[in-house]
Amino acid sequence: MGHPRRRLRTSTAVAAVSAAVLAGTVAGPVTAAHGTTASSTVRFVEIPGDGGTPLAANVVVPGDADGGRRYPLVVLPTSWSMPQVEYLAQAKKLADSGYVVLSYNSRGFWQSGGEIEVAGPPDVADASKAIDWALANTPADPERIGMAGISYGAGISLLASAHDDRIKAVVAMSGWADLVDSIYSGRTQHTQAATFLTGAGYLTGRPSDEFKEIISGFLASDLEKEGDMIAWGKKRSAATHIDRINANGPAIMLGNAWGDSIFPPNQYADFYEKLTGPKRLEFRHGDHATPEMPGLLGLPNDVWNSAERWLDHHLKGEDNGVDREQPVQLTDRQGDQEGYPDWKSVPSGTERIALNGTERVLANLDSGANGGTVFLSSIFDQLTGLPPTVSVPLLPDWYSAVWKSERYATARQVRGTVKLHTTVTSNRSSGTFVAHLYDVGPLGVGRLVTHAPFSFHGRTPGEAFGVDLELFSTAYDVPAGHRLALVIDTVDPLYAEHNPFGAKLAFSSPAGDPSYAEVPVRD
Q: What is the residue range of the signal peptide feature (predicted)?
């Protein structure tokens, strides 16, 4: 297709960086922040949030600031469970280049007051209050305001852009646009991810009663409260407010990792396609927040470099070429970058793996095919190039169903979203299955390419029904001589299981409605 490809430096020591940041040490930025440098000044302050709730914050101002000059403002809400010093290294870098930067601890965490609202209305209002404070207490320019953040900070920034039209640019890294689709995709609870976030929230903050009730019902798979949980999540999703965001027209850059085990990439890609203003989408190899983590310690980092270029163009008016590049930028496992005009142009075609015949699977036992462990598996893959693996020929056929493509004579570049269409029959009214796509070498060892869960409820036992499932988007090169294998089983440690004891699932391919896995490929 002639898309440009260029070699990028891959980040190193990601595990060490992640450990340091999660521990809240951030020794380098803190040392620099204790006084005035030659180029910028840092102050630790307390600012009033919504309803007067005190928010612990720090503000970094250019060293040449005087009473007559105004600077573009960037507001940075902290990530989930992170201390207020999270962004200091990047805040100082931005201030040195001519920004006023205000970072604050999201309400309910660490020294900030209030309770954890999970990007609820008080969190969105806090963002506007932070802007108010900066305009009143710093040389910030009211016409040039941006927001940025990682994870929780990204979600709050996107939501704030729907409710505050002063925000002209947003950089949302490793965040969510659809909270429901992120942790409840395929109507299946992402239990490892939700448990990790909940535990971190209790350790570093004060969960609100509403959050406690919602997460309790979610982890307990309380279907009677499903409607309330979905409504709660939709309220906290930028995708719900897409019309307001488009009306306000901020320039939005979205960045995420292919293997993000908290907020999978599909929901960002779907949201990106619905944006009508200036926009950019970047996907890289790694797990949740790992692509941008080194930048938090002031190390060279492609994500933060791209973020600064985006802010420079849209807040400073710099002609740095970011508006002339292909707006969709994908980095594959080898560190090669590809540019596309939009998300739908990512694959140049599709190939189908026919899911012929009828395969029957016993439930309640993990066959060995699974998505790994939240954070750890994708981080290990990022560092070593080794995703979760399984011996496909040794998978027990009574607990798994396997279909294979032909062996490829030439390499296949899988790009985008794999789609599964199949017909399911269960002897129970509820159930769960997980579809895994593997790259299988000559010795039968399968490397995980992508996967996704699916659950159903209220079905008539013995009655067939159709299923369409999107697996998590990916960029993966299948070597020549390998083949792809779709593996379906009923248990994956990442997800809740809704298979009653003794459940059996059958996957068939009716003549009038054949089953298949549609694989997006790039020429």
A: 1-32
